[in-house]
Amino acid sequence: MKPNFSLRLRIFNLNCWGIPYLSKHRGDRMKRLGDLLNMESFDLALLEEVWSEQDFQRLRQKLLPAYPAAHYFRSGVIGSGLCVFSKHPIQEFTQHVYTLNGYPYMIHHGDWFCGKAVGLLVLHLSGLVLNAYVTHLHAEYNRQKDVYLTHRVAQAWELAQFIHHTSKKADVVLLCGDLNLHPKDLGCRLLKECTGLHDAYHETRDFKGSEEGCTMVPENCYVSQRELEPFPFGIRIDYVLYKAVSGFYISCKTLRTTTGHDPHSGTPLSDHEALMATLCVRHSPPQHTPDPTQGPAERSRLISVLKEAWTELDLGVAQARWWATFAGYVIGLGLLLLALLCALAAGGGVREVAILLWTPSVGVLLGAGAVYLFHMQEAKGLSRARAELQHVLGRAREAQDLGLESQPALLLGQQEGDGAEEQ
Amino acid sequence: MKPNFSLRLRIFNLNCWGIPYLSKHRGDRMKRLGDLLNMESFDLALLEEVWSEQDFQRLRQKLLPAYPAAHYFRSGVIGSGLCVFSKHPIQEFTQHVYTLNGYPYMIHHGDWFCGKAVGLLVLHLSGLVLNAYVTHLHAEYNRQKDVYLTHRVAQAWELAQFIHHTSKKADVVLLCGDLNLHPKDLGCRLLKECTGLHDAYHETRDFKGSEEGCTMVPENCYVSQRELEPFPFGIRIDYVLYKAVSGFYISCKTLRTTTGHDPHSGTPLSDHEALMATLCVRHSPPQHTPDPTQGPAERSRLISVLKEAWTELDLGVAQARWWATFAGYVIGLGLLLLALLCALAAGGGVREVAILLWTPSVGVLLGAGAVYLFHMQEAKGLSRARAELQHVLGRAREAQDLGLESQPALLLGQQEGDGAEEQ
């Protein structure tokens, strides 16, 4: 690669709020999204919440001349909602579906049915290997009493792990999506500290858009004003994150967001705001001087966030086991009740009542069985994440004890060490 | 790394048949397995079907001095059954749980509850990066009418993809496990052609063990003789597969299998045979001469197996959709029946019969709902694998048309190309 190598990348990200039958003006908004993408001609458009594959196919037809490559990530019962349109050929793609993603009995929230995932695209641009990730984490329905907090932390951890293990040969890593995490939330800090990804909003010197870079703003007519009450400017939960590895340097030249309106016609494209970033990748000679941003302070910040996440996951494991045990007791009681009802039905007397109670009893039994299985699986999934995290925490502590200068990504286990681990 | 670098790796693999309450002499066999591993001192022991975490913990205690590092891969309701013991520190580990793994209503087979997975360990050995994978695919219960064939093909594909995306910086890739695939089965060919992995049994010049390298043999007293009837020597479904990337050369010096007996005490360690391989990794200067094993013949073999797998997955998608549609009709009929029963119960007359029929009707409705959701998810999972496979097939055909000399692993999308794809 030439020493004066330079590459400009224009990136678009939007959570499209494309729920069939439920999202207002979906068809019109999708049409205008297609118009905007055609007009602006980004290198890569990463979309979330395109729940209908027909919407994707329509967009694909419309965008074919400007974005010859596209992919829709399928998963779960409904789908992941993730898709991507690219000006450049996609060399490879794959996806990882998060192990934990809410509860099947929370039907009104629906996340469990979606199969929330992270999609990966590998692009080769003028000899540079770009790994672009698009994701959508579990929604937050109640910030005060967030029953999905542990799942979101586990998802952030899996996301960091997936990026780490699949980007080892990438020159540039890009992550876009709706993380459903505020910038200072545990999951967001965990992700950033573990991967070393930089936040375009913090890095750019040229930002134009909503106040404080918010991606759900009260000015947007599709947003529930009641939910945003505690946040006068709105919330920032959609991100453009990036990093370059040794030999390359990446910076965010400009970052724009929509501000509750379509940039052209006035009505919003979605209930979220779109992010439009211009990134610049340059060749940079390998540096042998220690990076002042990777000192002991950063290491202890990583250890601190890992400890915090470990505690959260540990609580989650205990809670999942409690639910599984509770469901186990209900199964036992349900079986007793059924035996009693059979005896009553056979003996006459309150026969009709006994028969009438059969349906709810069998229902309770089956329901408890499903709850038992689900929470056993949840406990296993959280234990897995906790074990992985504990391993990384052990390595980070070793590095701290040795006073090593190591990059956050390296603390995900890449450095040499001698300690045996238990997981 | 020194030009005369050489590393000897002793690998052990066994499907331990460790089902609590069901597997015969489990405790005794696990004890003897521990003794054998301690005596032989392998570099890496990769185990499958260690279903009880207590068994793992007992082994761990026993093996701690000789194998200071260990990991148990947790997933699903029961677990993945996979674990590993290592003489060397484990730098990193992660896992991928297969999207499709049988049917929840096939309770007697139980695979769905296990969360079958592939586990990855990254080891740094004298500066060499070794990615070791351990896996266990869905069992084959009826070879003549194999209802799990599509799932196993999808699992083989996901396994190949996982290895491809996570081993880009590895010097040596090792895959051990119970693939539940005969050497010429579609899944096995797909895995080998896509990853470029070599089969220790075919590569070594020094093999000692069961006839034709079989890993389930009629001499083993735990094996069902009836199931092995069509195979006089047994079947080969457990493997040690490996490859080295540019700069290294790997060969299998010796391969041993047990032959239906414990090598020391006479009774078998499991219903499967153990594999013991000695691999030798040497430094090899980068070769610029084309590799004669990667010619047009290999390319067309890859294309042929990809086409075959695509057809199998396509059939699977159609079948999954058929089941989802069928379940949809049953749901509709169930709702009608429930409404009718409500009317009959309210109207008197056959009231008791109507009430009695409530339970099975609700049961059928809930069951059909679950079947619908499951097969929708199955169709999405198979469509995903089909799309990924189609992309790789497209690239392989492009390479064939261009007459490029490319390695199988490269055909998983690494080479530069211009074609837009649809998935």
Question: Which structural category do the helix and sheet elements of chain A fall into?
Answer: alpha+beta
The stretches of 5 or more residues of chain A where confidence is low (pLDDT under 50) are 288-293, 409-423
Based on the structure, what is the oligomeric state of the protein chains? homodimer
Helix content of chain A: 25-40%
Could you tell me the mean pLDDT of chain A?
Answer: 88
Most extensive contact? A-B, 62 and 62 residues
Subcellular location (chains A, B): Membrane
GO molecular function (chains A, B): metal ion binding; sphingomyelin phosphodiesterase activity
Organism (chains A, B): Canis lupus familiaris (Dog)
InterPro entries (chains A, B): Endo/exonu/phosph_ase_sf (IPR036691), Endo/exonuclease/phosphatase (IPR005135), Sph/SMPD2-like (IPR038772)
